[in-house]
């Protein structure tokens, strides 16, 4: 089964500036929706949770 990618709620509605994220066995992956096959950032789940906790 493939990853389920979710679009950030803060992304532009016109599709020009979207950030997507997915949970993986290594943690959380983040990618640019315009370059889905391109590079991805990987964060441990604890680091991702700390990042989200600081958002308002």
Automatic annotation (TrEMBL):
Matching InterPro entries: DUF397
Pfam family, any one: DUF397
DUF397 domain residues: 5-54
Name of the protein this chain belongs to: DUF397 domain-containing protein
Species annotation: Kutzneria chonburiensis
